[in-house]
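thread from #wetlab-drylab

HS: before we spend reagent money on co-crystallization trials with pyridoxal-5'-phosphate, can we at least see a predicted complex? here's what I'd submit
DV: go for it
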Amino acid sequence: MAVNTQQYLTIIKELTDQGVQLIAVSKTKPNEDIQALYELGHRDFGENYVQELVDKQASLPLDINWHFIGHLQSNKVKYIAPFVYLIHGVDSEKLLQEINKQGVKQNRIIDCLLQIHIATEETKFGFDGPALHELLLSGRVADYSHVRIRGLMGMASFSENQQLLSQEFTTLKNYFDKAKIAFPNGQFEILSMGMSSDYALAISKGSNMIRIGSLLFGARNYTK
Ligand SMILES: *Cc1c(COP(=O)(O)O)cnc(C)c1O
């Protein structure tokens, strides 16, 4: 199945009215699908796998804003550092250091979101509340001259329990409001939370950037 352009137009209208940004998550999907949304004017796409992102970036229009939304290994930062628009999943200080190092090499400042662990599952990555607090209070972030922390990102539990999801989004929003105080220059303004199944709830809890894949591109097939 190809892209659901009607769905895209409906969502984009809804979001524009609310001042929320849409990241179209195109992982595992072919270039034609990305091109189809590009032709409708969409520029922000999200990918999870470094090699796939590098290949797509090389063959698609240069004015696409590529968001890396997956778990990023330090040894792979160098491949995306030349062009990545926003790294959503910065889940350790070690990774932050490496992104800074590659930013220096590329002579560019790389925008990042700190990933916060809000889900009940152990498998999701991210800082917990105390670690975030410690990092921001330490002042060490200011030493990373080639990284700009633009906000926070989180993934809620894989669950249909609305109350649980609602709590998790609220927790993240509270971290966001608190962390914002550490960045009086206004750079810290992005709260990336919400996916196909829970974006409306995430927006109601204060999200201003959502990451939508299957709703736009159809279900993913990982077996191919
Ligand atoms: C795959 C993915 C999404 C999109 O998921 P859908 O349920 O298809 O909308 C969003 N965020 C992250 C981090 C992802 O890995």
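DV: The chain is about 40% helix and 20% strand.
HS: ok that's useful, forwarding to the group
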